[in-house]
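Supplementary notes for students who missed Thursday's class. We covered one full example, reproduced here. Read the sequence, then the structure, then the short commentary at the end.
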Amino acid sequence: MDSDRLKKQIEFIVEIDKIKQVFRQTLLMDGSRHENDAEHSWHLAMMAMLLSEYTNEKVDVCHVIKMVMVHDIVEIDAGDTFVYDEKGYLDKSDREKKAADRIFNILPDDQAKEIRALWEEFEERKTPDAKYASALDRIQPILHNYYTKGHSWKEHGVKSYQVLERNKIVSEIAPELWKFINEILEDSIKKGYIER
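Structure (token representation):
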């Protein structure tokens, strides 16, 4: 056994436990508290398994699950930037790249490269797998807002046109899920969860 390799792997496992303390703007669907990044990633992994039949391109569900499990690890250092925070997005990429350099490189080189490649693929959103992973990352907060009666939409003054613009990637990989999002938004407008 390579004890140095195992030491690095355990150090990484301990480090990423911090993701449980990174809280997002969305509430849990029961409205009881804010969701953390670990819960978000787990939820996306489950969605990846359950919703792949709606993609219009073949996707490797196992690869997508790996991507969604690592996509927010950088937020341990970079923090969670609210999706509609224009000011926060100005340096988001730089903050996240710096975090990726530190956190992923805790691992042995081969695993650091693998995790980094998964994260970069997710960020670039060019492959069918990355588009699907990104689509799920967009759909999940919409569901949370719908089931919490628009909590973070209202808190941040988000309008439905912003949600549609932000989530267009869903239409590219999963038109049926895009239709579903539009139906949820229309119902949210009717119910007063979000303004047009």
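Commentary. The chain has twelve helices and two strands. The chain has a mean pLDDT of 95. If anything here is unclear, bring it to office hours.
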